[in-house]
Write a structure and sequence with these properties.
A middle domain of Talin 1; two-stranded antiparallel ribbon
């Protein structure tokens, strides 16, 4: 593998992360400046901004004909959010589970995963199915906002550092450019790597690309553990998985139909995603009720490691 491929992958990933952070910062700042309620910002602006890398990568992959990369990016990201990010987080620092997680967030995430399975079984996600995903996205946001207002979760939106409108717009513009360039370089590097090693776009999408686009969540989790701050919750990760299906797949398939070329995505990967979505519920109650700790983290990390291993044997 030549140096250019590594440079494209590394630089693309860094620029993607920077772009996503700038987009998030500017979007929240603009929303607060216009007096949009925090709860609405947390459930819409923040969630969409943190899903921006997955969205841009999937759209660009689909537009250049690499639809397996676009779909496996979402599947792999949803698996990594639970198996890797949540697994690592709770392994080092236990998380207490609130009732809203298993009564609201988890059921919606499980529904999104099951609906994803239903529409992908024919090997294609068309514009009409994409439109349905967007409708479910709007319904989910409305439902979550209504029930979140009764919850105790902190949205972690800092109001003491609101930038000026002009500065926020500049950040928004620069963030958009970074997302565009970063996705361009990252996708090119990923496809070159797949060609060099003779492996499928599906495997690259589930491993390199999905972990790369989930990097912001992973870094945030690890920093929170080191600083002993509860700045990330299981609700954030479940919300990310919901948005990956409804928003990322929905918007991408409206722009261009998503066709599955590698049937392993339908016959295997989608069921692994469902498994990771489902396993959270029993782990919330066993062995310790309403707590995800080291044992649960070890279980999630073990299953994730086994899955990644099976991709290369």
């Amino acid at each position: 593998m030549d140096l250019n491929t590594l440079v494209l992958l590394f630089c693309g990933l860094i620029v993607l992360v920077v772009g996503g952070n700038l987009l998030l910062k500017s979007a929240v700042s603009i929303s607060l400046k216009f007096g949009i309620p925090k709860i609405l910002i947390g459930m819409t602006v923040v969630s969409l901004a943190t899903s921006a890398p997955e969205l841009i990568v999937s759209i660009k992959s689909a537009l250049i004909g690499s639809t397996d990369l676009a779909i496996s990016n979402v599947v792999g990201s949803n698996i990594a959010n639970i198996g890797l990010v949540l697994g690592l987080t709770v392994f080092f620092s236990p998380i207490n589970i609130s009732k809203i997680i298993y009564k609201t967030d988890w059921p919606i995430m499980m529904f999104s995963a099951l609906y994803f399975l239903i529409i992908i079984l024919d090997g294609k996600i068309n514009i009409y199915e994409g439109g349905t995903l967007i409708i479910f996205l709007i319904m989910s946001i409305a439902f979550l906002i209504k029930h979140q207002e009764k919850g105790q979760e902190d949205l972690n939106i800092k109001t003491h550092s609101i930038d000026s409108l002009s500065k926020s717009i500049i950040f928004l513009f620069v963030g958009g450019i970074c997302l565009y360039l970063g996705s361009e370089w990252f996708i090119t590097g990923a496809i070159n790597m797949a060609s060099y090693f003779g492996i499928s776009e599906r495997v690259i999408g589930i491993t390199v690309v999905s972990v790369g686009t989930s990097l912001p969540e992973l870094v945030t989790s690890l920093v929170a553990v080191i600083k002993k701050e509860k700045s990330i919750s299981i609700g954030n990760l479940l919300g990310s998985n919901i948005f990956n299906v409804f928003a990322v797949l929905g918007i991408t398939s409206i722009i261009t139909p998503l066709i599955v070329n590698d049937l392993n995505i339908i016959n295997f990967d989608i069921y692994v995603m469902l498994f990771f979505a489902a396993i959270i519920l029993p782990l919330m109650f066993f062995p310790k009720k309403f707590v995800l700790g080291r044992i649960e983290g070890f279980i999630m990390l073990s299953f994730y490691s086994i899955y990644i291993y099976t991709l290369f044997i």
